[in-house]
Amino acid sequence: MAGDKTNIISPSGFAALRAEYDLLFATERPKLVETISWAAGNGDRSENGDYIYGRKRLREIDRRLSFLARRMKAARVIDPAEQPDKGRIWFGATVELADEEDARRTVTLVGDDEADAGAGRIGWNSPLARALRGAATGDLRTVQLPAGPKEWEIVAIAYP
């Protein structure tokens, strides 16, 4: 299970998890409990939409709170700016890649909870990130994709 192993994350990624947890715990959950209590006082619960929906939403919030708590407990916050070897690809690196057709792609290695492939942020445990770890500028790395292997050349490495 993903929650059982170390969760490498940036300081801003950890702050985002904490902010979501605090919002759910301190704001959304108490409002929902109040609504459920009000709806429960309205009599027949079997046909009470507010009560039924409220209970369902409360279970969803509690599951999310539990997930966030596990992720934060397993978190190991790493500041990319403090990576000792900036000549190689490690957590937090922004990497420019070129494939066999010289098509360029820029990706940043972030924690799995911060990943957003559309924005070029790939999770630390993704196949591409695993293949890139430890590589230096000029190195070639092969990534196993569902469509087959693809080779990338590391063109540039930058850290914040």
From TrEMBL:
Keywords: DNA-binding, Elongation factor, Protein biosynthesis, Transcription, Transcription regulation
One annotated GO molecular function: translation elongation factor activity
Family: Belongs to the GreA/GreB family. GreB subfamily.
Function: Necessary for efficient RNA polymerase transcription elongation past template-encoded arresting sites. The arresting sites in DNA have the property of trapping a certain fraction of elongating RNA polymerases that pass through, resulting in locked ternary complexes. Cleavage of the nascent transcript by cleavage factors such as GreA or GreB allows the resumption of elongation from the new 3'terminus. GreB releases sequences of up to 9 nucleotides in length.
Keyword Nucleus attached: no
InterPro entries given in the database record: GreA/GreB_C_sf, Tscrpt_elong_fac_GreA/B, Tscrpt_elong_fac_GreA/B_C, Tscrpt_elong_fac_GreA/B_fam, Tscrpt_elong_fac_GreA/B_N, Tscrpt_elong_fac_GreA/B_N_sf, Tscrpt_elong_fac_GreB
Superkingdom per UniProt: Bacteria
Keyword Protein biosynthesis found: yes
GO biological process annotation, one example: regulation of DNA-templated transcription elongation
Residues of the Transcription elongation factor GreA/GreB C-terminal domain: 86-159
Alphabetical list of NCBIfam families matching this protein: greB, PRK01885.1
Name by which UniProt lists this protein: Transcription elongation factor GreB
Domain Transcription elongation factor GreA/GreB N-terminal: 8-77
Gene name in the database record: greB
Transmembrane regions: none
